[in-house]
Amino acid sequence: MIPPNEGDPAEVTVTNGPAGMSYKLQEGFVILDGARLASTFSGMVTRMGSPKLTAPCFRGKILKRADTSFTCDVQSGDAVVGYVTTHVTGRSGDVTMDYEPIAKAAPNAGGTGALDGTYACLTSQYQWRPSGGPLVQYVPSPLPRFTISGGSYTSGGNAGMIRTSGQVVSFLGGAYDGWQGVLGSNSTGRYILLRDDDHGNARPGVGAKIGDHHRYVQK
């Protein structure tokens, strides 16, 4: 069972042969063992002197793209006390983890004040000209606006938190729970780029593609 909002969608090719059904996973994906992730996390926090911390999302089988990252809540009992970011290395299933307690995350979250504002969304699409050839244009996106204030955000009456790591903005809770975006700026202003094909994978350094969503702060 893949934990909700943690797995990535992928295609599986099923072949019915003489020996029964065989399965082939889409290239570029890896199946992670939740029990192994839980063990790795347990060893890490034990070395840090916090053996009672758990990451509830580490269970079952988790399907993820290779060379990507995902972030989960860390709990002490029933209380969320921090976040663990798992970095998937290639298709081997090897991972590294970074743990960030909420107490230490607060200054970083406060540093997101530079992102404060209300963001409206544009998405790119092709417009076909009579003379031939496509022209890229930007049109309003159906995604709802959100407002960032310090380390939190609101959208559609729902509230959540944001975290930044380099160029990546992660949304925790609220309407965009599990989404990631890439910070950027151009002549139009500051924006957060959200991927159309994989909301939870910001892919910094990868150029925007048709259908991606540009969230510009409104002046």
Give a nutshell description of this structure.
The strands form 4 sheets. The protein has an 8-stranded antiparallel beta barrel with strand order 8-10-11-12-13-14-15-16. Strands 5-6-7 form a 3-stranded antiparallel β-sheet. The chain is built from 2 helices and 16 strands.
Task: Detail the topology: elements first, then pairings.
Blueprint lengths: L11 E6 L2 E6 L3 E5 H14 L13 E5 L3 E8 L2 E11 L4 E8 H9 L6 E12 L5 E7 L5 E4 L2 E4 L2 E8 L2 E5 L7 E7 L2 E6 L18 E5 L2
Antiparallel strand pairs: 1-2, 3-4, 5-6, 6-7, 8-9, 8-10, 8-16, 10-11, 11-12, 12-13, 13-14, 14-15, 15-16
Strand order of the largest sheet: 8-10-11-12-13-14-15-16
- Count of DSSP helices? 2
Main sheet attributes: strand count, strand direction, barrel closure = 8 strands, antiparallel, barrel
Number of strands: 16
Key structural traits:
mainly beta, 16 strands, eight-stranded antiparallel β-barrel, about 220 residues, three-stranded antiparallel β-sheet, disordered N terminus, flat
